[in-house]
Amino acid sequence: MPPVDSIPRLEQFVSRPNFWRRLQWYLDRTFYVRKRQFFGRTVYGSAPSLYHHWMYDTLAWKKMTWLGLPVQKSPCDLWNYQEIFHALEPALVIEFGTFQGGSAIFFASVLRAIGKPFRVLSVDVNPCMASDPDVDFLVASSIAPNVAATINKLKATFPGPIFAILDSDHTKEHVLAEMLSLRPILGRGDYLIVEDSNINGHPVLKSHGPGPYEAIQKYFQLYPNDYKRDAAREAKFGFTFAPQGFLIRN
Ligand SMILES: C[S@@+](CC[C@H](N)C(=O)[O-])C[C@H]1O[C@@H](n2cnc3c(N)ncnc32)[C@H](O)[C@@H]1O
User: Fold this and answer.
1) Which of 19, 69, 70, 86 sits in a 20 to 30 Å window from 124, CA-based?
2) pTM check: above 0.85
3) What average pLDDT score do residues 91-114 get?
């Protein structure tokens, strides 16, 4: 038991220069907790979660471009995809939801830099004006039977690992149908990203209604052993637009 005299008195402690600033720094560093006024609301949360809200709610993600083309993603997720590509060296990338082609051309740019043969197939109900020598832009619904047929043909020409990314219609039913359509196509070690599982309150856009997150849950109820979650990748940059959506096929 230390002598009572040796226990510093609280007032002495508190009156030390910069005590409150140092305490704030310590709490910030230790807990990463902040309280902020945001669009008139008080928001509590960890710094990554608040940044997630900021990135989503300010639409900063809609202002992203790759080589001048819009890419509607979080930059942290794009960096993760680049790292996954380097590790996986996919021969085929399947993207559902092209928009203006920025993400498909991002994927092709990274794979060209890696230097192995590959093809990117990007599918959208709307035509895309962009073009790239290594990308096939297909105008179709992602769940149309001809899409699966096209993927199977490409698989034969570009055998090897597949990276698939779902970023089209974000309703639960549609995403679940996309996951089911890929079930016979993807094999062990292939990578599936289910984008925008952050909506419907996970943690953004609470008003959306059941979406990709709920589709993933339903898929895992149906087929619990199809995929394992790549939780380390999800956590790597503190937040992702695809929570629970980094999946590796068993
Ligand atoms: C969020 S955007 C895609 C963003 C793009 N991947 C990017 O990162 O820039 C969603 C796209 O899905 C398309 N889409 C909507 N329903 C679809 C469907 N059933 N099949 C394929 N694409 C669809 C829309 O036309 C839209 O271009």
Assistant:
1) 86
2) yes
3) 98
